[in-house]
From TrEMBL:
<dbReference type="GO" id="GO:0015095">
    <property type="term" value="F:magnesium ion transmembrane transporter activity"/>
</dbReference>
<dbReference type="Pfam" id="PF05239">
    <property type="entry name" value="PRC"/>
</dbReference>
<dbReference type="GO" id="GO:0016020">
    <property type="term" value="C:membrane"/>
</dbReference>
<feature type="region of interest" description="Disordered">
    <location>
        <begin position="415"/>
        <end position="441"/>
    </location>
</feature>
<dbReference type="InterPro" id="IPR000644">
    <property type="entry name" value="CBS_dom"/>
</dbReference>
<dbReference type="Pfam" id="PF00571">
    <property type="entry name" value="CBS"/>
</dbReference>
<dbReference type="InterPro" id="IPR006669">
    <property type="entry name" value="MgtE_transporter"/>
</dbReference>
<dbReference type="InterPro" id="IPR046342">
    <property type="entry name" value="CBS_dom_sf"/>
</dbReference>
<dbReference type="InterPro" id="IPR038076">
    <property type="entry name" value="MgtE_N_sf"/>
</dbReference>
<dbReference type="InterPro" id="IPR058838">
    <property type="entry name" value="SH3_actinomycetes"/>
</dbReference>
<keyword id="KW-0129">CBS domain</keyword>
<dbReference type="Pfam" id="PF03448">
    <property type="entry name" value="MgtE_N"/>
</dbReference>
<dbReference type="InterPro" id="IPR027275">
    <property type="entry name" value="PRC-brl_dom"/>
</dbReference>
<feature type="domain" description="CBS">
    <location>
        <begin position="361"/>
        <end position="419"/>
    </location>
</feature>
<protein>
    <recommendedName>
        <fullName>CBS domain-containing protein</fullName>
    </recommendedName>
</protein>
<dbReference type="Pfam" id="PF26205">
    <property type="entry name" value="SH3_actinomycetes"/>
</dbReference>
<dbReference type="InterPro" id="IPR011033">
    <property type="entry name" value="PRC_barrel-like_sf"/>
</dbReference>
């Protein structure tokens, strides 16, 4: 099919981005727009493209050769791999502009005069100078009577009032479209996307997420971003989110705060939620006790294989933590009764469902002590080819378990989520698009 010179930005989301030889570069996730204070048509500066590594980069519109129904083709296969950053005056069409409230001054639509409507899409088109500008705006009115949704209208940009840089900084803009995009994304990918948004929109989205989802996302942010976002939530919401976090991640986050502030939040938490966090905070963060989670999968020896596998199948349990089930004498809450051994997932899968876990215990696998250093934990995983290991105290009580993802978080540089691998830096320098969207303007 023929390439197009006019398109609505929502139609671009998800399209493959191809080089001139058809090689895949990534997929379109948003369009970067420069909002002008003069009221002139905003320029579409470029595309926010998501690579297979989930990183989002900026590709200038000048690199776009054609936009077709199934793909966007570039005039080069070499692009800058630097992470997308927005400059002042720039905005993400999907992430910031859509769902904004505006007014329409169109003589053909007198019923809309003075009425707030919602932006649901932006139409961009290519000019004779090869620039792309926002020429049309799709808006939707509020519901009337028994209608499930309001009426949709497409108007010229010049007839829209309220889409200005200052208006986009006002609180209360809708975030429904962004939440819809994030709905099926992994928490780590949502965290990366939030880091690319301006603080205002990031805080709005965080406020709109439910406690459990926000807790999962918060756990994937760098420490500085975690504390900043937590401070913007307000005390009551911050406490709710901390209670929804895994105890080890909550302890890591509270460990970044001043002692008085951390203690105040702990006192506001439910005692059942704060107690395991307090225990974890007694350990140094660079030891097995500081790395462990206090909520691994724990059963008694009389638990059936079927019941144990049902616990393993819980989608909230990370794959590494699901690889080992720990068997103890009651009580099963940490610190538990006497630690008896562990059951490997592969062994559970080979057993009849009615058998009990006590019959397939691995009692020979050594365990970690809470004081073990990072090096000791690393050697332990390498020696026994494990991705999860028990932490047991001197009295033989199971305190928790360390998983390989917690170990990697501690071994990697503190800012590993914010920096790019060194082997990508040479290709970063190939492109002249710069480090931000504005460089492509």
């Amino acid at each position: 099919m023929a390439a197009v010179s006019k398109v609505f930005v929502a139609r671009l989301v998800g399209l493959a981005v191809l080089g001139p030889d058809g090689e895949s570069i990534g997929r379109v996730r948003d369009v970067v727009v420069a909002i002008r204070t003069s009221g002139q048509q905003p320029r579409a500066l470029g595309l926010a493209v998501e690579l297979t590594t989930r990183r989002r980069i900026f590709v200038p519109m000048l690199r776009v050769t054609s936009i077709e129904p199934q793909a966007v083709t570039l005039n080069t296969g070499t692009v800058s791999l630097r992470r997308l950053h927005l400059r002042p005056g720039e905005a993400l069409a999907i992430g910031q502009i859509l769902d904004s409230r505006v007014q329409v001054d169109d003589p053909d639509l007198p019923d809309l005069a003075g009425v707030d409507v919602t932006v649901i899409d932006l139409g961009i088109e290519r000019t004779r100078t090869r620039d792309w500008v926002v020429s049309r705006v799709a808006v939707r009115t509020g519901r009337k009577g028994l209608r499930r949704r309001g009426e949709t209208h497409v108007v010229q940009w010049e007839q829209v009032r309220g889409l200005t840089p200052s208006a986009l900084d006002l609180p209360g803009q809708g975030v429904a479209r962004a939440l819809m995009q994030f709905e099926k994304m992994r928490a780590a990918d949502v965290a990366n996307a939030l880091r690319e948004l301006p603080p205002k929109r990031r805080d709005e989205i965080a406020a709109a997420l439910d406690d459990e989802r926000l807790a999962d996302v918060l756990q994937e942010l760098p420490p500085d971003d975690q504390t900043e976002l937590l401070n913007h939530l307000g005390r009551d919401r911050a406490v709710d989110v901390l209670e929804a976090m895994d105890p080890d991640d909550a302890a890591d986050l509270l460990g970044e705060l001043p002692d008085a502030e951390a203690e105040s939040l702990l006192e506001s938490m439910d005692p059942e939620e704060s107690e395991p966090v307090r225990r974890l905070l007694t350990h140094s963060p660079d030891t097995a006790g500081g790395l462990m989670t206090s909520e691994p999968i724990i059963v008694t020896a009389s638990t059936t294989v079927a019941e144990t596998l049902a616990r393993v199948r819980n989608p909230d349990v990370p794959p590494a933590a699901a690889s080992l089930v720990f068997v103890v004498r009651p009580p099963t809450a940490t610190p538990t009764g006497k630690y008896l051994g562990c059951a490997h997932l592969q062994a559970l899968l080979r057993e009849p469902p009615a058998n009990i876990v006590g019959g397939i215990l691995d009692t020979d696998l050594s365990h970690l002590s809470p004081e073990d250093s990072l090096e000791s934990v690393t050697r332990y995983f390498a020696t026994y080819n494990l991705v999860c290991g028990p932490v047991v105290d001197e009295e033989g009580h199971l305190l928790g378990a360390v998983s390989v993802d917690d170990l990697l978080d501690e071994l990697l540089p503190r800012d590993w989520r914010e920096t790019e691998p060194e082997d990508e830096s040479p290709q970063d320098a190939v492109s002249g698009s710069g480090t931000s969207a504005g460089a492509g303007a």
